[in-house]
Write a structure and sequence with these properties.
mainly alpha; single chain; about 75% helix
Length: about 230
Amino acid sequence: MYLIIVVGLLLLVLYGPGWWVRRVMARYAEPADRYPGSGGELARHLLKRLKINDVIVEETSRGDHYDPDARAVRLSPDNYHGRSLTAITVAAHEVGHAIQHAIGYPPFQLRDRLVRMALIGQKVGAFLLLAIPVIILLTRHPGSGLLLFLGSFLTMGLATLVHFVTLPTEFDASFNRAMPILEQGGYLKEGDCHHARRILTAAAMTYLAQSLMSLLNIWSWLRMLRR
């Protein structure tokens, strides 16, 4: 009984944030033509208005994000072309990151460094998982495989820790950058401010939700290694 409760709580922690983010984004993606301009158009307009002239806006299939290396606001097809409340709010959130970058916001710079470390950690963790059968075969000691598994779990779980630590940077992009721009600029229709806040909360939680889900990759790797 206790095991069922623990497993249920674990699944809730891992799946819950991602499910809530997707639900909020989908809810306000309709009507698709609520606003006269698309998310991509709004992002370009805001960057021009804020005189951030070295940042471009692009469509991507890899999810909405700001790339500090390429200095690019990248939006998914639905948000790049869409004219829904979700599209313009997510666009404003990503522009919020461009603002942080432009002004040298220290937490953003720290977040960028930590994310790079987390990406390396995920690759190292995947390599360690692949190495488990080889090491056990060479050493003939199951304990070595357990040590490698623990090491891979810690390194692959680094991304989750990073996004917990840098979550305030995401909320800053949402509520100290994007929301004031949307409200003070009169970009939102009457009654949409409250809903935009929910979307901005979801946008701030996106990376954390994705990193929590990535922890499940460890079990996928283990199932593959058993075959």
